[in-house]
Amino acid sequence: MFHIFSKKKFLVDYLQNFVDIHNHILPGIDDGAKNVKESIGLIRGFKEIGITNLIATPHIMSNFYPNNRETITGSLDELTNELLANGLKDISIEAAAEHMIDDNFEELLEQDGVMPMRKSYLLVEMSYLQQSINFDEATQSVMKKGFFPILAHPERYGYWHGNKAKYSAYKKKGIQYQLNILSLSDYYGPEVHKVALNLLEHGLFDYIASDIHRIEQIDYLKEVKIKKDMLKSVLPLIHNTINIFY
């Protein structure tokens, strides 16, 4: 029987003044915006849902996107100039990176080549095919360097799905977790959605972000609806993300 309290809410209604800490809006340097025109389109899409504060996190991935501080800040400068040319003066963008834990990561870390958020938070990721061989050592090295490691979208690593205890174990070791907003829908498939809800229910996420690459994803995000009880678990993630990174 339909009940008023089972009504779903549009998640974007709760993203006003949100700080998006994971996205691929910088032009021409990874699998996100291909050029500055696409970047502006993405930013206008964010603005439509009330998000004007962004931390851009292009991939640093040695075999595919060998970015560094120079390529990332150069892309940010290009985008900043275009924002001014388009009258988008109320947009705040900082640059960091999403670091693939690969065979080059620890050398990059040792040489101070990483790009953290707010000087202390390092966004890291793994391949979707298999866990990084050096994941344990690399994340411990991140902490020894004085950073807080944030693992991007842990719900999307299918090789962890059959061993839910891993999530709690790594959490206890000091790794923080960032949920992708679109994982609250069926965008990445039913299994990712199911795991995201399970991790959310057990309070394992610390932050939430968009991981937007294309304008179609913003359009999809606008349609994401969640139940009232789920919203109670998501709102603290939204607030924590704002409190830490605003």
- What is the correct CATH architecture? Alpha-Beta Barrel
Which percent range describes the beta-strand content? 15-25%
Portion of residues in helices?
Answer: 25-40%
> How many DSSP-defined strands?
11
* Helix and strand run: EEHEEHEEHEHEHEHEHEH
What is the CATH H-level superfamily? Metal-dependent hydrolases
- The top level CATH class name: Alpha Beta
Low-confidence stretches: 1-5
| Helix/strand class | alpha/beta
Summarize the structure.
The protein is α/β, with parallel strands linked by helices and 246 residues long.
Provide structural commentary.
With 246 residues, the chain is of the alpha/beta class. The protein has one domain: TIM Barrel (Alpha-Beta Barrel). Strands 4-6-7-8-9-10 form a six-stranded parallel sheet. A three-stranded parallel sheet has the order 2-3-5. The protein has a two-stranded antiparallel ribbon with strand order 1-11. β9, α6 and β10 form a beta-alpha-beta unit. The N terminus is likely disordered.
